[in-house]
Amino acid sequence: MAGEQSGSAWRAIRRLIVGLILFTFFALFILWRIDSPRVERFRMALVDRFVPNMEWALAPVTQFTRIVSDYQSYAQIYQRNQELRQELQRMKGWQEAALQLEQTNAQLRALNNVQLSPSLGFVTGEVITDSGSPFSQSGLLNVGSLDGVEDGQAAVDGLGLVGRISGVADHTARLVFLSDVSSQVPVIIRPTGQRAIVHGDNTLAPNLLFLESPEDVLPGMRVVTSGDGGVFPPELLIGQIVRARSGEIRVLLAADFEGLEFVRILRASPLDQITGSGALVGDDILDEVPLVAPAPFAGELITPPPLRSGE
Amino acid sequence: MGVSPKIWVYRLLFVVLGLLAIAYPLLPLQFTPERWPAPELLFALTMAWVVRQPQSAPFLLIAGLAIISDAVLMRPMGLWALLLLMASETVRFSYKSIQERGWAMELSLVAMLLLAMVIVQNLLLWVSFSQSLEVATLLQFAMLTLLCYPVMVAFLHYILRVRKPDTSNRPDRLGKIK
Questions:
Q1: Are A132 and B81 inside 8 Å of each other by CB?
Q2: DSSP conformational letter for B25
Q3: Contact B26/A54, CB-based, under 8 Å?
Q4: At what angle do helices B41-52 and B135-154 cross, to 10 degrees?
Q5: pTM for the whole structure
Q6: Measured between alpha carbons, how far is B21 from A134 in angstroms, rounded to an integer?
Q7: Distances from the Cα of A292 to the Cαs of A152, A282, A284, A302, in angstroms?
Q8: Is B85's pLDDT higher than 90?
Q9: Which one of A21, A31, A140, A181 would you mutate to disrupt binding with B, by most B Cβ within 10 Å of its Cβ?
């Protein structure tokens, strides 16, 4: 090692660097608080760099744990079989009903010449990591902006809505689950048509906020997205109403979070919004039409606009 | 503390272990909200390592790992990294006396540091009007992390042989025998 002199110089420099790093971290935290989108983009860039590289290390462990838990489920295979059979029986009934309904529907549609909303395009991604922190309920997908994923798009599994995309990098995107505390989704309760907001609270049965008349909401009613706010397409299934033991009304999510592996990200841009309130009808005509007396042939076609007071 | 090639092996080992500690809560095993928060293995690793061999866990590596873990684990950027680096520097400052005073002292010091970090973290989150965590979750988190600490120490000591320099029967540099 070098002499005493350079040792103390190094110690001073070191202290300076440590101080600088600490300051940078603190500034980063403040910046995160003030200008969150920019820091989140930085975060996504870091994640995009590191997580796909870690995947090869994570994969064996994940597979092994899944195999073990699959093996455990063999123990209950008989019971599972019975349950599945019963379920199949019920499903057959539903299938019949669905077929009949589909036929009726087709007939009615042919009669009506209904204009349907354009069907949704989607891209399927795999959930590669868990968020692993008490701060958020989210997962990382292996598809990103190169696959056409954008912020705010809805993700569904086979059955229901899982969450929304929040944070996109080139090859990865973060999916914030409905159970996250920052997740708030405007919904409609079928069949009553009441509107409310599903607010995540770190459980699989999120809260319902802003419910107008809770006494009309019964367990078992279906909850679907309303499309208000223009983030989600309307009519995506979220779940069923359940009543907690304390009497609270909650929504049991339909998506299967236990076995979440692949999700579909719906690429449809939400329907056009009607922006602005209606204007006065006829007001613009007043501006366009010259106030001088129109040519006689035109005057017969256009009814003269009412004159403004004072003119 | 002469710089030997061996120290680079240990530094590499520290980085690899640190990355694993960051990666393990990311394993896509369970997407349901968990009842227990994951313990912070990076904290346990850093503290245990800095107490034993501070020269093979330089602060730059700790800072890098900490900021990566903040980014990847969706925590507020920079906050836990700031606290972790401060705690590790505190331990590094007095690692010799911690080594001498033994195991119980070390554990209680680490516990105190962890509690202080958790409290300051929540305080800063609260002051900055971000979403602060529930006290129960924080206590669970601190408890689990502390429970991991002895395991981490044993792992470092017996398996990786990251140990305190054996000072009991060797003269130190000035020729004194303790």
A1: no
A2: G
A3: yes
A4: 40
A5: 0.66
A6: 16
A7: 53, 18, 16, 14
A8: yes
A9: A21
- In this predicted model, which residue has the larger pLDDT, A247 or B124? B124
Q: Which of B31, B75, B134, B173 to mutate to test the interface with A (most CBs of A within 10 A)?
A: B31
Q: Do A133 and B85 touch (CB under 8 A)?
A: no
Identity of residue A140: L
The ipTM (two decimal places) reads 0.85
Distance separating alpha carbons of residues A13 and A194, to the nearest angstrom: 65
Quick: pLDDT tens for A157-215. 877 899 999 889 888 899 999 988 888 999 999 888 889 999 988 888 888 888 888 88
All residues of chain A having their beta carbon less than 8 Å from the beta carbon of residue B3 are: 1
**Would you place residue B66 in the very low, low, confident or very high pLDDT band (cuts 50, 70, 90)?**
very high
Residue of A nearest to B87 (CA): A22
- The H-or-E segment that residue A156 falls in is strand A154-156
Between A and B, how many CB-CB pairs are < 8 A?
141
Helix locations, chain A, DSSP H: 4-34, 36-74, 77-112, 283-288, 296-301
Q: Say if the Cβ atoms of B19 and A54 lie within 8 Å.
A: yes
Task: Give backbone dihedrals phi and psi of A260, rounded to 5 degrees, phi first.
Answer: -70, 120
Residue range A95-145, pLDDT digits in tens: 888 888 887 887 777 767 655 555 567 888 888 877 766 667 888 898 988
Residue A251, both tokens: 């929504």
Instruction: Determine whether the interchain pair B29/A62 forms a contact, defined as Cβ–Cβ distance below 8 Å.
Output: yes
